[in-house]
Amino acid sequence: MRGALTVAEYERVARAARTYREALVVALCGRVGLRSGELADVKPAHLTERSFDGRTHAFLRVPNDGRRAYVPDDVAREFERYVNANNVGEDERVFDVTPRRLQMLVSEVATRASDGDDRLADAAARDLRGGFARRHLADGVDPRVVRATGGWASLDSLEPYLEHPTDREIAAAMTDDGDETADDAVAFAGASRRLGAALADVSTRDAVDRAACEALAPSLPAVWTCDEHGDLRECAGVDAETARATLRESVQETGLLGRHGVDEQGAFAQRALDAERWGRDAVVAVSSIRSNGTTHGLLCTVTETTETEGLREFLVDAGRRIGWTTAAVERKRLLVADTGVELAFDITAGSFFVAASRELDCAFDLDGLVPVEDGDLLCFVTTSGASVEDILAHAGEDDRVRDVRLIRDHGDRAHLECVVSADTPTGVVVDRGGAVESLSVADGDADLTAVFPKAVDVRGVVEAVTDRFSGVELHSKRETERRPQTTDLRQTLQEDLTEKQRATLRAAYFGGYFEWPRGSTAEELADAMDVSAPTLHNHLRKAQQKLLTAAFADDA
């Protein structure tokens, strides 16, 4: 399937459902916006009702995400009917199967609905969810509402589902005075798109801050970033002296920046500013720059906008995206470093692989790892000692596993693709800038080795892992030399490819995409990385082009 379902295509799939379960799964994906992995964890207790202006509305609290998805009345009734008919308890899973089985169920219904239509025959749960976004955006629903209820990582994630406006629509929009609320929504949407484009190809931390400030400046009167200790890094729309003064006088009072640096738990705060200094009534709004559990500093802006959910949501999202890019740049910096610090950890808890090896008496070896945009880890592993069916079933019951897929089964061993939560020891290590060198798991014990930049705060890294997970201990620490980068090809791979291009290439390599027969299709890789198939193809083709240019440029 290429792209989101249209309304007509969704209706065809919905009509092809033959059982209550099939109908409900299709509706929850296509009309509520749930992922297959989220469906597997839904319980009756997650469905709640709220009344506004004399009308009752149903919401579904999405497990492992925290968002509240809106449930249309008829879907809510079908949900309750299914629960009652199957005697599902309030705290029991509604669909007691794995996410993979739910994906297969959607594919079976779509194939049944296709009637020879190849486009519809390949439809997956992801395409139903994409249709949810496409339909609401086309109906004029605020993109921030679609993002929030559907759980997309950012407003930029909705770009593939936006219809290109006609010349008539462009002319009408540009000449329509509109109301203030609509103007604010467009301003935030534009700032979000500029931010996404600006962060796409940055290669240093200074460039991240500079690109972020320049991208946000057209929509916000003043914007700047500071590091974890409150020291100014970059600013736009305000001079450095004024930004530093505001940091000292106001930002610390928001509570996000304390005596010992940025509050690890804080996400957003704002405070009124001295009108005499700024020449107008204004507020300073502050958001943490974060990637998963790591704080990289603060994003600050001065605006005349009073506190609104739109401003809060936009800045928190911007801080997360800047934080993710900062973490990616730090990982790239390690790749080109000549020396580093190698840390080895012993892990006995906090990991799906550790728990599975203990309970199933099996072993895992990490072949490759790719951080994906939402902070999760795409892991390619070789497993032995237990049946694939038992491992997949165990993964389906573990909240730390977002998705799992068999790539190849060789009988005595198997290759698996697993998307695991960043809230694991390995996830924290990666988020702190570590490059995982090896991960071996057996008998409920894991050996994790990672290399960090030489200037890393080793104590901070160790405390970040051991404080969060009681079953982790530092085994050893040593300085190490990276292999010399002598070829143009390796230099291109590590220096010229963007983070997204390199991540896509790694995922394709370890997922068996280049083998024959293929171990993974582009669609499967795209699902695992939570991007659209066209986006994955774009990154993959550009990465291949750069590598082939480095390899054959002298032969031209």
Which helices and strands occur, and which strands form pairs?
Layout: H1 7-15, H2 20-30, H3 36-39, E1 47-52, E2 55-61, E3 68-71, H4 73-85, H5 99-114, H6 118-121, H7 125-138, H8 143-150, H9 167-175, H10 180-199, H11 205-216, E4 222-226, E5 232-236, H12 240-251, E6 257-258, E7 261-262, E8 268-272, H13 275-278, E9 283-291, E10 294-303, H14 309-335, E11 339-347, H15 352-360, E12 363-371, E13 377-384, H16 388-396, E14 401-409, E15 413-420, H17 425-431, E16 435-442, E17 445-453, H18 458-468, E18 472-481, H19 488-496, H20 499-510, H21 522-529, H22 533-552
Antiparallel strand pairs: 1-2, 2-3, 4-5, 4-10, 6-7, 8-9, 9-10, 11-17, 11-18, 12-13, 12-16, 13-15, 14-15, 16-17
Helix pairs in contact: 1-2, 1-5, 2-4, 7-8, 10-11, 10-14, 11-14, 19-22, 20-22, 21-22
Report on the structure:
- This protein has an 8-stranded antiparallel beta sheet with strand order 14-15-13-12-16-17-11-18, with helices on both faces. A 5-stranded antiparallel beta sheet has the order 5-4-10-9-8.
- The protein is an alpha+beta fold.
- The two termini are 38 Å apart.
- Helices cover 45% and strands 22% of the residues.
In short:
With about 550 residues, the chain is α+β, with helices and mostly antiparallel strands. The protein has 22 helices and 18 strands.
Number of strands: 18
Give the helix proportion (percent range): 40-55%
Strand residue content = 15-25%
The biggest beta sheet reads: 8 strands, antiparallel
The low-confidence runs, each spanning 5 or more residues with pLDDT under 50, are 176-186, 258-266
Multimeric status of the protein: single chain
Distance between the termini: 38 Å
Strand order of the largest sheet: 14-15-13-12-16-17-11-18
Tally of DSSP helical segments: 22
* Strand-pairing-aware structural class: alpha+beta
